[in-house]
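I have a small job for you when you get a moment. Can you supply me with one protein entry, sequence and fold together? It will help me judge whether the discrete encoding reads sensibly. Write everything out right here, beneath this request:
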Amino acid sequence: MIDHLVYATPSLDVVDQLGIPVSPGGPHPGRGTRNVLADLGGGAYLEVIGPDPDQPAQPGPFGTHSSPRLVAWAVRVTDIDQAVAAARDRGHEPGPIHSMSRERPDGVLLTWRLTVPAPGVLPFLIDWGTTPHPSGDAVHGSRLVSFHITHPDPSSVHKGLLALGEDIAVVPGEPGLVARIRTPQGEVTLR
């Protein structure tokens, strides 16, 4: 199940140009980033992430981008330790598990565990445990219409997806992610 899509930006100032209504998320302490969020329906959300001017820049899995782009996506699991073990048993290495947290603008502390996103088009895994899911307090009104992966070797991507228990369309092309989102103002495509 798609948990969220990650759209990295060189500055959160570009959010107004997206055409997608967003609400404040918050800073990622020690990571040098902050985010804004949009509920996409069905328990999924869009995370727009960019540098946090109140923190020193840090290297991270989402990197620094000179232009906004869809850089990652997450699959929600309820037992990340078991999900990682199962993926490894099926021949896919989802990466090490890390714990993270951030405080919402209303003071609620969110905590989660995730695998560190590897470069490429395969998802990372995320387990929210008992913390409130970010889609619940993100601005509503947008919907994920479609999501697919592009890659020059679709069969290799399918192997990784199957190991993770996911079935997402993969079409030939340069490595990338493509999401179509319906907003109150019309449809937006993120790449």
Observations:
- The chain is about 15% helix and 40% strand.
- The mean pLDDT is 93.
- Residues 71 and 116 are 13 Å apart (CA to CA).
- The first strand starts at residue 2 and ends at 8.
